Sequence to fold (446 residues):
Amino acid sequence: MRIAIVGTGYVGLVSGACFSEFGVEVVCVDQDKVKIACLQRGEMPIFEPGLEALVARNAAAGRISFTTDLTAAVAGAEAVFIAVGTPSRRGDGHADLSYVFAAAEEIGQALTDYAVVVTKSTVPVGTGREVAAILRRARPQGGFDVASNPEFLREGSAIEDFMRPDRVVIGADNDRAGAVLRTLYRPLYLIETPIVFTDIETAELIKYAANAFLATKITFINEIADLCEKVGADVQQVAKGIGLDGRIGPKFLHAGPGFGGSCFPKDCQALVRTAREAQSPLSIVETVVRVNDARKSRMADKIISACGGSVASKTLAVLGLTFKPNTDDMRDSPSLSILPRLSAAGAAIRAFDPEGIQEAKKLLPNLVYCADAYEAMEGADALVLLTEWNAFRALDLDRVQSLLATPLVIDLRNIYQPEEMVAAGLSYVSIGRTTHTARPQLRAFA
Fold:
């Protein structure tokens, strides 16, 4: 089987690599000549654990290739996936579909034989119908079907998510299109992965509804964390207590500085816009968007308060800049809201992230970037943990205490237990838990 994937961003590249691992011949096409040249050399434009090795193995076997020639990529393909970006449109928050529609028009002009044109990009309800209309104008003689196949990949674990997904959703309006995609996903069918067949509109909405619900869980536990701080409760124990209820589940109940990334913020905004246009507003999702935006700003206030009410002329060590660990993605990261606020308040910021520094330098040029976590801490008035990378979960706390000018740790991801921080002589501020002050250090006098 041969397929083409238009777009070599996160979704397109990971999907293409994984399909090639299934034994499918995959051609990935992109207009970005520099990106394609890098991919042809085996250089990945994104950081995703295991991706480079996966691409290298399948490129060597001749199952995946990269090109800028869309016509050649589409020729002979049984399925053509549209996996281009759908960023938030300026002004109204709706998804910008210009890249999707441009790709559809090019595909329509390039088709020579029957193919299923599949939207893999996250798109609002109704997009598949518009893609079909564009294809009909470009190819009035037909010879194609349109389908929706939304992705559910988590950055940092995308390959595992693709290879062993909770489900595969396929929106198609006829058996022929469904059969092509069923054949493509046959390796997952053999391991009894649930495959949900729907119409196109339902498949498009499933993606948005899933992301909005997960964003709601995050926002809910963040607000519970605020209440915990007021009443002296522990949000981690609350999350455990409610997460053991099978109707709720433990995932996405980790309090923090607010959600970010390439999906949740823009998808919630796009869903809100779609619902308003359909005159069926989603008040819960609207509130989630508003509360999450406000939370990021309030985290800067929390840090300032922990530093005694002012960060003017103080140095802050910040560990973690990406929106989550195991990615170099900075899109809508809480750091982009929090750190400029701290800089504007007079703080000097020394930062380290295992993979995100190159992206962060483009967006946060005024920070001092360090080679490792401990270099960032040298002489700092406080340590701020912003992203829960594994590398930050087992810091040498004695060394941390000795490097900081003031033994203060502000943990916005609840990585550590308060008792161990206090035992190490560190004052510890976290999310949804009581603030713990370091015990005075006993000194021996001659």
